[in-house]
Amino acid sequence: MAETLLDHKSVQFEFAKKSFLSFIEGKDYLLPYLKPEKTPLLLMDLEGIKGRYIELKYHFPNFNVYYAVKANDHERIIRALAELGAGFEVASTEELNKVLSVGVSPNRIISSNPVKPPEFIEYAYKKGVDRFAVDSFTEVDKVSASASRAKVYVRIVVPNEGSDWPLSKKFGVDLDTALDILEYAREKRLIPYGITFHVGSQCNNFRNWFIGIKTAAELWEKAKQRGLRLQMLNIGGGIPVRYSYEALSIEDIAYYVKGLLQKFFPILPYELQMEPGRGIVGDQGIMVCRVIGKAKRGEDLWLYIDTGVFNGLAEALGGIRYAFYLDREGELKEWTIGGVSCDSMDVVARNVALPEPEVGDFLYILSAGAYTTVYAAPFNGFPTPEVVFP
């Protein structure tokens, strides 16, 4: 019996089409912005963002949710989440000022960047922010010098396998070193407050949460044996969204994480924290751009658009594979998507299944709500995307 082979181009394009239609379904307020006069344009759904935060709070009821401002620092997003009661994770003076400017109290702000400029620590502490992540003795010294009674939480290293944007080994320490850092913080008259880890951005591997929580529990017990009374466990970010494939759901991750906490922390920490960024805004935005050229080079078909990796799609360089939708019918072909700049690195994606486009067609890049405008620069003189909230 002959096997029926799946047409991978059709599967890819239909998935993108389904994602596009799902994004705009029942949202008439988005429709006028799908064919704008000026592109590129980042179309953000503020109601969807608020809905995603509410979904997180529903499935993680015992967690304080601190939105990672780095994912998308637009004032409208910060204000909307602040009105819902969210906390915020910041890494710089500029991020902190954006959050404070909408009236957020400092006690709803944390800083989990393990290596911070000394002037930021001093400024944040003077503004009332008193919770800082550390992962080195040097960082403890810096915090102690500028924030004498701050609460510090140590970052442990966990695997990032299965994450589309792994965090390599830039941050985090092993269990024994983490314990020594917490003891050193106490010696420096800081408050050893808790433990944090990060499973990697866009994580679709349950095992990373398993190792993170299990290791944190071991460290928690060792700290207790040394007279350290920790209060907080922070599970970082990593909540994935749909790109060119389905992702783990918030509900499934929450069910798994709560089971792990029940297993490894018979008595829950006084405070549980999480820091979603991409998980709140990632699939709540569409990049609307136009086709500006096409060519055949050898056997490869090239499609050129009016944005690129330097102007808003930098994550394409690091492994994120966006879904692309073009409102045309016809034979599907595989295209390489080239960006607007004259830099040869400016390649957004390869092997993208699309029907034959024409110059001037609108191309929709899905799940572009996170790490687009915050990475963007007007390289080569080309503009960063205009951001629209209908």
UniProtKB/TrEMBL annotation:
<feature type="modified residue" description="N6-(pyridoxal phosphate)lysine">
    <location>
        <position position="70"/>
    </location>
</feature>
<keyword id="KW-0663">Pyridoxal phosphate</keyword>
<comment type="pathway">
    <text>Amine and polyamine biosynthesis; putrescine biosynthesis via L-ornithine pathway; putrescine from L-ornithine: step 1/1.</text>
</comment>
<dbReference type="InterPro" id="IPR002433">
    <property type="entry name" value="Orn_de-COase"/>
</dbReference>
<dbReference type="InterPro" id="IPR029066">
    <property type="entry name" value="PLP-binding_barrel"/>
</dbReference>
<comment type="similarity">
    <text>Belongs to the Orn/Lys/Arg decarboxylase class-II family.</text>
</comment>
<protein>
    <recommendedName>
        <fullName>ornithine decarboxylase</fullName>
        <ecNumber>4.1.1.17</ecNumber>
    </recommendedName>
</protein>
<dbReference type="InterPro" id="IPR022644">
    <property type="entry name" value="De-COase2_N"/>
</dbReference>
<dbReference type="InterPro" id="IPR000183">
    <property type="entry name" value="Orn/DAP/Arg_de-COase"/>
</dbReference>
<dbReference type="GO" id="GO:0005737">
    <property type="term" value="C:cytoplasm"/>
</dbReference>
<dbReference type="InterPro" id="IPR022653">
    <property type="entry name" value="De-COase2_pyr-phos_BS"/>
</dbReference>
<feature type="domain" description="Orn/DAP/Arg decarboxylase 2 N-terminal">
    <location>
        <begin position="49"/>
        <end position="281"/>
    </location>
</feature>
<dbReference type="GO" id="GO:0033387">
    <property type="term" value="P:putrescine biosynthetic process from arginine, via ornithine"/>
</dbReference>
<keyword id="KW-0456">Lyase</keyword>
<dbReference type="GO" id="GO:0004586">
    <property type="term" value="F:ornithine decarboxylase activity"/>
</dbReference>
<dbReference type="Pfam" id="PF02784">
    <property type="entry name" value="Orn_Arg_deC_N"/>
</dbReference>
<feature type="active site" description="Proton donor">
    <location>
        <position position="342"/>
    </location>
</feature>
<dbReference type="InterPro" id="IPR022657">
    <property type="entry name" value="De-COase2_CS"/>
</dbReference>
<dbReference type="InterPro" id="IPR009006">
    <property type="entry name" value="Ala_racemase/Decarboxylase_C"/>
</dbReference>
